[in-house]
DNA sequence: TTTAAATTCCCCACTTATCCCCACCATTCC
DNA sequence: GGAATGGTGGGGATAAGTGGGGAATTTAAA
């Protein structure tokens, strides 16, 4: 289970260190575009459950083609190197606006990779809306003893 | 599994480098016309499963006849040469509006080949509709571990 | 049939990017 | 304090992408 947030740097070659805790589960992984302008990193095993479903979407519907392109073509196989780093392809760094300082966040079954500035903005925006978020949370906490 | 997007150039002789990752699976392949003005490249093995199905489409419907002509009659056998390139026939380059800069996209079981400008337009159009994409995705991602 | 022109294919060469390795510093843990 | 671990930077070997020459083959024309 991936938890916590880490501040790391992307170097000149586009490499990003995977938090050491998570490396064993991410030796083989897939990065792709996420919502809200971040990248998402799945363990390969998880990704292999998603990909066939996306690929099987009907090609006669335009919206389905767009979805499968959005998800599959923007994804990239990655492996951690000897130093525990992955290489993020150019087009994904551009998409997420990644420069140097990034935040790697553990979200239970996946990692999210954010540009640090955007992460902070998102965080403060979230805190302002904490009331409505609290409402959504109440649904979840009903069965805690 | 083919994933990711690659920017390559078509040279004056109509040759296109296949991304090195994919070459082993595409020593023998078939290119044909795809939807949305792109070309599609199948491994020969996959093509041999697709072609009979396309050929078997009902001949009493005009739209079916048109589709099977569209796909079958424009298909062409290709092999990667010593430098890892394939030759794209004139009529396919014309069809897809391929000039020099192209994008090769991995879509799980096939590659798509796009003119770079058209690829970018399609991408930005898709990102504008990312809400509807999110909806379609929610159906798929429910059982991610 | 011969010749010329065009096309295809094979090979070589150059530039750029990628990968693998080593080195360093900071922090943590014994 | 010393050793181990984690993050970061960079050099050098290797591979990938690209362009072009020239032989072989095909096509067309004379």
Overview of the molecule:
The structure is a homodimer of 145-residue chains. Chain A is α+β, with helices and mostly antiparallel strands and 145 residues long. The first copy, chain A, has a single domain, classed as Transcriptional regulator MraZ domain (Chemotaxis protein chec). Chain A is 38% helix and 29% strand. Chain A has five helices and eight strands, in the order E-E-E-E-H-H-E-E-H-E-E-H-H. In chain A, the strands form two sheets. Chain A has a six-stranded antiparallel sheet. Chain A has a two-stranded antiparallel sheet with strand order 2-6. The longest helix of chain A has 13 residues, at 116-128. Chain A starts with a strand and ends in a 5-residue tail after the last helix. Chain A binds chain B through residues 30, 35, 42, 45-46, 49-55, 59, 62-77, 89, 91, 109-110, and chain B through 1, 3-5, 21, 35-36, 105-109, 112, 122, 125-127, 129-130, 132-134, 136-137, 140-141, 143-145. Chain A binds a DNA duplex (30 and 30 nucleotides) through loops.
Strand content of chain A: 25-35%
- Classify the secondary structure makeup of chain A into a structural class: alpha+beta
Largest interface: A-B, 33 and 29 residues
Indicate the CATH architecture of chain A.
Answer: 3-Layer(aba) Sandwich
Number of domains of chain A: 1
CATH hierarchy class name of chain A: Alpha Beta
The ordered H/E elements of chain A are EEEEHHEEHEEHH
Low-confidence stretches of chain A: none
Distance between the termini of chain A: 23 Å
Summarize the structure.
By secondary structure, chain A is α+β, with helices and mostly antiparallel strands. Chain A is built from five helices and eight strands; from the N terminus they run E-E-E-E-H-H-E-E-H-E-E-H-H. The first copy, chain A, has one domain (2-117): Chemotaxis protein chec.
